[in-house]
């Protein structure tokens, strides 16, 4: 059903929904992340985005939560 046209396009509603920057993302201890949000956790981000594109957000909650955990562990407040 037209999936071939959307295969090369990342899910903008997901990746653009988290416009975190190093200036606004800090841990409770005041420690800033070592990289920008767009560069953090590429493995979990890639798996999450692919799952959402192929299966829909409601079917990828475990991968979404895994990416959130990775981002928090990297120092982002999400």
From TrEMBL:
GO biological-process terms attached to the record: mitochondrial respiratory chain complex IV assembly
InterPro entries reported in the protein's UniProt record: Cys_alpha_HP_mot_SF, Cyt_c_oxidase_Cu-chaperone
Keywords: Acetylation, Chaperone, Copper, Cytoplasm, Disulfide bond, Metal-binding, Mitochondrion
GO-annotated molecular function: copper chaperone activity; copper ion binding
Task of the protein: Copper metallochaperone essential for the assembly of the mitochondrial respiratory chain complex IV (CIV), also known as cytochrome c oxidase. Binds two copper ions and delivers them to the metallochaperone SCO1 which transports the copper ions to the Cu(A) site on the cytochrome c oxidase subunit II (MT-CO2/COX2).
Family of this protein: Belongs to the COX17 family.
Subunit composition and interactions: Interacts with COA1. Interacts with the chaperone CHCHD4; this is important for correct folding and the formation of disulfide bonds that stabilize the structure.
Protein name: Cytochrome c oxidase copper chaperone
Organism of derivation: Drosophila mauritiana
């Amino acid at each position: 059903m037209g999936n071939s046209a959307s295969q090369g396009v990342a899910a903008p509603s997901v990746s653009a929904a988290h416009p975190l920057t190093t200036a606004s993302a800090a841990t409770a201890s005041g420690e800033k992340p070592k990289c920008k949000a767009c560069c953090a956790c590429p493995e979990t981000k890639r798996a999450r985005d692919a799952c959402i594109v192929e299966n829909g957000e409601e079917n990828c909650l475990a991968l979404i939560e895994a990416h959130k955990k990775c981002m928090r562990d990297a120092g982002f407040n999400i």
